[in-house]
Amino acid sequence: MNVAVMGVGMHPWGKWGRPFLEYGVAAARAALRDADIAWTDVQYVVGADTIRNGYPGFVAGASYAQALGWTGARIASCYAACASGAQALDIARTRILAGLCDVALVVGADSTPKGFFKPVGGDRPDDPDWLRFRLLGAANPAYFGLYARRRMALYGSTPDDFAAVKVKNARAGSLNPMARYRKPVTAEEVLASPMVADPLRLMDICATSDGGAAVVLASESYARRRGARDLVFLSAVSTVTPTFPNTVLELPNFATDSSAAVPAPERPFRAAIAYAAYEEAGVGPKDLSLAEVYDLSTALELDWMEDIGLCPPGEADKLLRSGETGLGGRVPINPSGGLASFGEAIPAQAIAQLCELTTQLRGRAGPRQVPSPRTALAANQGLFGHGSALITTR
Question: How many domains does the chain have?
Fold first, then answer.
């Protein structure tokens, strides 16, 4: 059985100062219109949770169902940090594959604080995420800076390479009506922006944003009965965890596992996320027409290009400079504009990535359209070993 993406919808990213439910409901209604079905047709609702927005955020599935109007639909809610959207999609897809429902709605939305994220309130000395803020004073940009320094030390990447990522993504984002930042930038502007976490400057780091995204998933037979055409299939969802020993430092941990007694796995965690999706979908990196990756920083996008197998470790800078990952290139990366153009709305991110993959594979991306795409991947990652990768095919 194939699971089809019948409809996609988004609320534009920005800083709107409204309740997260408004963004999620707007995205859900857009997805339902796109799928040409009614809310009352939906049998299952999965909400990706937001932990900053009170009790309704913790029970997002029920919150969206109530906001759209109670229908008796079954629900689920899930939280996995930045992998929340992928896990929500996995829950809905699995239920369809099991034959327990024909059509499901997946929604994620967030209202974020001003500035960078901070820990949820309260004292939790046994919580490593709380500790890294309070003990080390390490907000997210500090970790992004450490990742960037690691890349510079290992592969010789430079701030000029990082700036080139922002230039590429800003160009794509300028063509996307859902993006928060819609202005092209120059490398000189990136390199002149304020230093935040050396070597990363303000324009190297993604913002925190309000926004929402939703998709309607259905069995292929249901979609065809409803007259859907040009179907895009969600062919894989990877939610793998690391394999011991995990020897690459990942936020929010302070140390890695030791490989003194047990050798490190063949692939580090982020690469394992993507390759699990490839295996499930029966495709490989060479099959990709485009990819959406988790560019929390410009440097991290370069890491992801290698992790998803587009090039060997240390070669992403060269691939970027060749133009192959920009619009019009061989494998455009973040043709949506990425987090560089959207910012983080955590529960919505992986769902928004699926919206972009679907729009591209349908050929409806307008001026940022990738020519004749057939296979696309989205990669993301949540705290505490939450993998997140999706593959769509036509």
Answer: 2
